[in-house]
Amino acid sequence: AGDGSGPVPGDGTDPPAPERVLFPPTFSVSEIKNKQRRHFMFLRWKQQQRKEKLALKKKRRKEREALGDKAPPKAIPKTIENQRVYDETTVDPNDEEVAFDEATDEFAPYFNRQTVPKILITTSDRPRGRTVRFCEQLATVLPNSHVYYRRGLALKRIIPQCIARDFTDLIVINEDRKIPNGLVLSHLPDGPTAHFRMSSVRLRKEIKRKGKEPTEHVPEVILNNFTTRLGHSIGRMFAALFPHDPQFIGRQVATFHNQRDYIFFRFHRYIFKSEKKVGIQELGPRFTLKLRSLQKGTFDSKFGEYEWIHKRREMDTSRRKFHL
Predict the structure, then answer these.
(1) Is 255 helix (H, G, I), strand (E, B) or coil?
(2) Which residues contact 250 (CB under 8 A, 6 or more apart)?
(3) Residue 191 shares a structural domain with residue 260
(4) 160 found inside a domain
(5) Residue 103 domain flag
């Protein structure tokens, strides 16, 4: 007030503004009845959590810089992946039994370079446009592959024709509501056959900052984290789709990365910018696979003998238990 009865704004006698506490210690966002208000307060709480986390990170970085060489080693963060439950079927590279199985399994002629992969890519009956484009782009990734569109022909009739024409693998892309949602991979002539659920399919035009169209060079193949006996078999199935002699001049690489039993496929082109820096461009397509079953022999949905079937209620009892 101007009569001297109180502090005048701006004269240095203003009382300090109280700190505004966003959330009391006992506050719970779930207590807010209004849905929009509850969502708004939750976003503010998440924003405050991020700020506190960044501030703590900066503080720790400054402390490490101040200590220099005396700084303690960085703590390894706990993740579901590195807290994985040990699987007794984990493959030891020096195991004689594993080496014998690899030398006598269905893929041995490929790894001994006695056979060259020849792949037939087909679809479910009467595919839609998106599935057709995905098959065409997948054929540019897999050398020596051919696309055939089914018109009511059963797989049991296709498989003998493939064997007669010296195809080594059959890939079937299934769809639901015009979206590719499944992949069947059958190794010919004696199997095995793997059935995958497919998700997160992205065609080339849907990938940001993509590179130019892939060339006809044979790509390199990277298989990550296929550590168990089952994962080893699946990894060998993927490896047998590509010729054994990659053409490094093409600088193209196909990656199958297994993480928490989800197999992420990416197709890149790389370039060496210097001795320490490498630039990569994604070429596409990309997709994610989840193994549903592994069947002995070729495709037989009624009388086939299964080596492994994913049973959710029995197998998914722990978030840290993985099978590949």
Answers:
(1) strand
(2) 215, 217, 218, 219, 269
(3) yes
(4) yes
(5) yes
Least Cα distance to 298 among 155, 134, 125 occurs for 155
**Phi and psi (nearest 5°) for 87?**
-105, 130
Same domain, 97 and 192: yes
* Structural domain contains residue 143: yes
Assess contact for 285 and 200: CB atoms under 8 A. Answer: no
pLDDT score at 319: 81
Q: Which domain holds residue 226?
A: 89-316
- Integer Cα distance of 19 and 22 in angstroms: 9
C-alpha distance from residue 142 to each of 136, 243, 246, 252 (Å): 10, 9, 12, 12
CATH of the domain at 306: 3.40.50.10480
Give the pLDDT confidence score for residue 152 in this predicted structure. Answer: 78
Last residue of a domain, one of 70, 98, 127: 70
pTM above 0.70, yes or no: yes
Buried b (16+ CB within 10 A) or exposed e, 97-130: eeeeeeeebbbeebeeeeeebbbbbbbbeebeee
SS3 at position 260: coil
Q: DSSP of 63-101, one letter per residue?
A: HHHHHGGGSPPPPPPP-TTTTPPP-TTBPPTT-HHHHHH
- Residue 10 lies inside a defined structural domain of this protein: no
Secondary structure class of 290 (helix, strand, coil): strand
Residues of the chain short of pLDDT 70, as ranges, are 1-27
Cβ contacts of residue 206 below 8 Å, gap of 6+? 284
